[in-house]
Amino acid sequence: xxxxxxxxxxxxxxxxxxxxxxxxxxxxxxxxxxxxxxxxxxxxxxxxxxxxxxxxxxxxxxxxxxxxxxxxxxxxxxxxxxxxxxxxxxxxxxxxxxxxxxxxxxxxxxxxxxxxxxxxxxxxxx
Length: 126
Known about the structure:
By secondary structure, the protein is an alpha+beta fold. The chain is built from two helices and seven strands. A four-stranded antiparallel β-sheet has the order 3-2-5-6, with no helix packed on it.
């Protein structure tokens, strides 16, 4: 067995397995994540809201997406969702579909672990 064969057959598989194990360990460490509940408060404009899409951004990357649609004659109702964030600071990019068109709202946030972030949107939807 040559030195190259030994490296390819013995060392590389062990190094590859070790790299995979380290990546899995890092992705499973949940103590580095912040869990928060987001509440969208439409206020008096709730009757005009047909649908809402929210993109949660943290550390310059899309972390999660939320979508909710109101059923035909009903209002959209209470809109809340929970997410795990890699960083307590981030940005919500919200698209609200109204009868008059779509409104795009961008809001920065800071979330404490286990906390609730309430986003008032009534002023932006009038």
